[in-house]
């Protein structure tokens, strides 16, 4: 059986920091209110030279370097975003243009649930033997669409990108289970009017038209706690595991109270729940891969450990999956006459093989 192991990962956020004190000067709010209601202290926002593409490419380069691969060796790029730099062409094509290579490229749209959706789609391409190496990116620049006069939404969002590289493995690594869901009728609770093809007409009819993010915070809050808890529990069950087998829950970073409530619903101690919300706010599709990259850097999980990724977002949508960390069973074929290297998840060289007599050699993972 083929699996899709995560062999590289990376993240990128803009340099500019927007603190709660900055927001106090922009809208009627306070650091105390924001921290107690959301857990957010600061977030990163794009500047004039940043874009969804530039953040995505930076995260992707890190992930590729960690996997010891070049863009030419990638077969497919999948980008999860709801803030592409252009609607035509896909964000994935813009990223490919930036990185180089000739990978197939397409976007997945599931708002803040997007990265987990994209990971599940991309994993299928690897599991079914259609592609060997896939780059999956979650990236958003929602602050470009946030109304900085609306205190109920402008405090929540930040920008960023996270990326992973998937490679075929014959050991159970990468996504072991997936739970995807949506309640389209709930679209009215979190949406941005007129970013799509209806804009010209709407804009003509309503000159005061404001294409900013609209949100019913309380409704989304209630939905989020239920959706994250239920999806995570189902993903663990579908993987044939219990929460005792899970090293860490990596949830979408939207609100600390939502994360705490979901963890309580799962009876999971908070030490097992990753959060970096205080520094980045809600980065939409980037939140889970950024959290994954930062959690890995702490050394809290290693080869063979089980992680639960879970997200919710506009749609309304939700997504969860169990990921078994590590690269056991990943093999790289060295081209005839060439020399190849296998690296472990930390970028360390673990095996080198050289092709002899024009025959390819396989360099196995750990
Ligand atoms: N600063 C100060 N007061 C604020 C405020 C701010 N930034 N934003 C809202 N308020 C006020 C409201 O106007 C309201 O005042 P009122 O009682 O005088 O009418 C009061 O605070 C309570 O508002 P409420 O909406 O009930 O607050 P809340 O506890 O539900 O917190 C959210 C608001 C947005 C933080 C919370 O609902 C939330 O996080 N929801 C989920 C949103 C989310 O995750 N969206 C992204 C999904 S991917």
What attributes characterize this protein structure?
366 residues; 30% helix; 17 strands; Peroxisomal Thiolase, Chain A, domain 1; binds coenzyme A; multifunctional enzyme; globular; alpha+beta; 5-stranded mixed beta sheet
Q: Which SSEs are present, and which pair or pack?
A:
Elements: E1 3-12, E2 17-19, H1 20-24, H2 31-38, E3 42-44, H3 52-67, E4 76-80, H4 91-99, E5 104-108, H5 114-127, E6 133-140, H6 151-154, E7 160-169, E8 174-182, E9 190-191, H7 199-205, E10 214-215, H8 217-238, E11 246-251, H9 256-266, H10 277-280, H11 287-297, E12 306-313, E13 317-324, E14 331-333, E15 339-343, E16 349-354, E17 362-364
Parallel strand pairs: 4-5, 4-6, 11-12
Antiparallel strand pairs: 1-7, 2-3, 6-7, 8-13, 9-10, 12-13, 14-17, 15-16
Helix pairs in contact: 3-4, 8-9
């Amino acid at each position: 059986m083929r699996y899709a192991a995560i062999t590289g990962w990376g993240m990128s956020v803009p340099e500019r920091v927007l603190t709660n004190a900055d927001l106090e000067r922009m809208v009627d709010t306070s650091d105390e209110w924001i921290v107690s209601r959301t857990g957010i202290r600061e977030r990163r926002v794009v500047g004039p030279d940043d874009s969804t593409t530039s953040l995505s490419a930076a995260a992707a380069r890190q992930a590729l370097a960690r996997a010891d691969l070049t863009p030419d060796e990638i077969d497919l790029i999948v980008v999860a975003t709801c803030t592409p730099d252009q609607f035509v062409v896909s964000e994935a094509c813009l990223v490919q243009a930036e990185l180089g290579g000739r990978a197939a490229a397409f976007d997945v749209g599931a708002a803040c649930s997007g990265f987990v959706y994209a990971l599940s789609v991309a994993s299928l391409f690897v599991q079914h033997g259609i592609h060997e190496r896939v780059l999956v990116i979650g990236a958003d620049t929602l602050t470009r669409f946030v109304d900085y006069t609306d205190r109920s939404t402008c405090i929540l969002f930040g920008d960023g990108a996270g990326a992973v590289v998937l490679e075929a493995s014959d050991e159970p690594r990468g996504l072991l289970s997936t739970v995807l869901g949506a309640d389209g009728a709930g679209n009215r609770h979190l949406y941005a009017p007129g970013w799509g093809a209806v804009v010209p007409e709407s804009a003509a009819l309503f000159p005061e038209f404001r294409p900013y993010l609209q949100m019913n915070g309380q409704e989304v809050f209630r939905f989020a706690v239920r959706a994250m808890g239920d999806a995570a529990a189902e993903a663990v069950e579908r993987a044939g595991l219990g929460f005792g087998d899970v090293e860490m829950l990596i949830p979408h970073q939207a609100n600390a109270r939502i994360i705490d409530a979901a963890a309580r619903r799962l009876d999971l101690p908070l030490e097992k729940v990753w959060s970096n919300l205080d520094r980045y706010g809600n980065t939409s599709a980037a939140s889970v891969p950024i959290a994954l990259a930062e959690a890995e850097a702490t050394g809290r999980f290693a080869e063979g450990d089980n992680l639960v990724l879970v997200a919710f977002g506009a749609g309304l949508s939700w997504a969860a999956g169990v990921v078994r960390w590590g690269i056991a069973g990943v093999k790289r074929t060295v081209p005839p006459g060439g020399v190849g290297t296998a690296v472990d998840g930390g970028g360390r060289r673990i095996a080198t093989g050289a092709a002899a007599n024009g025959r390819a050699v396989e360099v196995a993972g750990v």
